[in-house]
Design brief:
By secondary structure, the chain is of the alpha/beta class. It has helices at about 25-30, 70-75, 100-110, 120-125, 140-150, 165, 175-190, 200-210, 225-230, 250-265, 275-285, 305-310, 320-330, 335-340, 355-365, 375-380, 385-400, 405-420; strands at about 10-15, 40-45, 60, 75-80, 90, 130-135, 155-160, 195-200, 215, 240-245, 270-275, 295, 315, 345-350, 365-370. The strands form three sheets. The protein has a seven-stranded parallel sheet with strand order 3-2-1-6-7-8-9. A six-stranded parallel sheet has the order 12-11-10-13-14-15, sandwiched between helices. A two-stranded antiparallel sheet has the order 4-5.
Length: about 425
């Protein structure tokens, strides 16, 4: 491998959030890097936060002096957060202006100058990485990746976790300036990359044509000990249907409709929802009149497996709205491999063309239904034999394709191939 001293390539991770194992993307990143010794991993991150030393040997928070433009934007808005694609998202102080103001302010912040100080350049050079890995997701991160790659003279492995390259700044923000700069920076990264990674096979197929580069699919994986403990459990009567995940992108609406259907055809069934705390604050009010909905705790990554094991059926939903489908069409949620590995059947409700729905059908691990298919839902609930077969097929798929040891080793080999110039 690239580092002759210990057989592992030296990897520089560049991202907005620190490697702390939190959130869906953080969990996936931690699992993929589990075969790389922490001493071989360094990180440059743009957001405040602490890096987990068990995942990364050395890290650097990119200094930000803050331009007058940035200061003005921040003074005009009251709340800052990060979207799934790691692009800055602003919530406007005045609700009526929130949509347009959020998009334009986000673009302005993303376009703010990024400088690599002499200390940053020295730190990166001292760590002598063989390859840069990044999930990109914003103009700021793209610029840092390109500048570090140019200075260090090393290749880049970009990993696209959702379809932000087609959706971000696609509504003419800043009269198209933000979109134009995003595309320019993406192309610069691709030019430094012999291959790219995508979250799904569907994404890899589409992007390979866009980039004229080969791609490989890497999604979340599941700890081997969790897979070894998993067993198929499908009781004759479904009493607990569990959903784990976010409620944004109108997923809350799909869950509310499912609760209404269950109330009519399966009054004994409970829809249990585990969602992030911030989503509970925003969306829990929509379920107040639905007595068959219960709220489990917001789950830390290490608690997900236990929560799934308490379910009879696991629920995956995506919205049918055209706007939401633009964001979800090529993505596969962090929880889908976890669902497959649980030994429980999956009830998936959403557009069948989405990558996540197609994957669930391809594995045989669940049923995909439309929101209005009450007969299909009733059949799924009463067919214990069919649910057992789905659970078994899903678990078999997870053991074959989503074990952490196998996936992380394949991920490491990919990084090593790029570092040695053997990929492409």
């Amino acid at each position: 491998m690239a580092d002759s001293r210990n057989g592992y390539p030296r990897v520089l991770v560049v991202s907005a959030p620190p490697m702390d194992g939190r959130g869906g993307t953080g969990v996936t990143l931690a699992n993929l890097f589990s075969s790389v010794p922490p001493g071989q991993v360094s990180q440059v991150h743009l957001d405040q936060g602490s890096v987990d030393p068990g995942r990364c040997g050395s890290s650097l928070l990119l200094p930000s002096k803050g331009s007058p433009l940035e200061g003005w934007i921040r003074s005009r808005f009251t709340h800052m957060s990060r979207a799934a694609h790691m692009s800055p998202t602003i919530v406007a102080a005045r609700p009526k202006d929130a949509g347009r103001a959020r998009a334009w302010a986000s673009a302005l912040l993303d376009l703010a100058p990024v400088q690599l100080t002499p200390a940053t350049k020295h730190w990166a050079t001292e760590h002598r990485p063989d390859v840069i890995y990044s999930q990109l997701g914003s103009i700021r991160v793209l610029r840092v990746v390109n500048r570090l790659a140019e200075r260090l003279g090393v290749p880049v492995v970009p990993h696209f976790m959702d379809d932000w390259k087609n959706t971000l700044y696609s509504q003419g923000e800043l009269l198209g300036v933000a979109r134009s700069e995003l595309r320019r920076q993406v192309q610069a990264v691709v030019d430094r990359s012999p291959l790219f990674l995508g979250i799904s096979a569907a994404m890899v197929d589409e992007y390979a044509a866009d980039f004229d580069r080969p791609g490989r699919a890497f999604m979340n994986c599941v700890a081997d000990d969790a897979l070894s403990r998993a067993s198929v459990v499908t009781p004759p009567t479904v009493r607990v249907l569990t959903y784990v995940g976010g409620l944004h992108l109108e997923r809350w609406r799909s869950l509310a409709r499912l609760a209404d259907q269950l109330g009519k055809i399966a009054p004994e069934a409970e829809l249990r929802i585990h969602a992030p705390k911030e989503d509970l604050q925003a969306y829990q009010k929509h379920f107040e009149q639905r007595n068959n909905v219960s709220w489990g705790p917001s789950l830390a990554p290490q608690s997900v497996h236990e929560a799934l094991a308490k379910a009879d059926v696991l629920v995956h939903v995506e919205s049918w709205s055209p706007e939401a489908r633009l964001y979800t069409r090529l993505s596969i949620s962090t929880k889908v491999p976890q669902y497959l590995a649980s030994g429980r059947p999956i009830l998936a409700i959403g557009p069948p063309e989405l990558a996540s729905m197609r994957y669930i059908l391809e594995t045989g691990g669940g049923e995909v239904l439309s929101e209005s298919d009450t007969d299909g839902l009733r059949s799924f609930l009463v067919d214990a034999r069919g649910r057992t077969e789905m659970a078994q097929l899903g678990l078999t798929q997870a053991k074959a394709h989503h074990s952490q040891s196998a996936v992380s080793e394949a991920f490491l080999r990919t990084l090593d191939e790029v570092a040695r110039g053997a990929a492409g």
